[in-house]
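New to this. Help decode both lines:
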Amino acid sequence: MPKTHKSNRSLAKRIKITGTGKVLKRKPGQNHFNAKDSGSAGLQKRGQKHSPISYAKSFQKLLPSRRISSEQ
């Protein structure tokens, strides 16, 4: 039986890989203590953003079963 690498489950729960292989992630600090933020800071934290291309190589090592594109 061939040995397979386990994927890093904590990373897999924090990012989303689109159908074309782009990586989306949430900005940190969205869960609580948001009332004291300004309106513009709250708006910037909403939704998911594209992660930098430089992270793609390290993400690919941690998630071997997923195809991640290096061009975003």
About this structure: The first helix runs from residue 9 to 14. The chain has a mean pLDDT of 87.
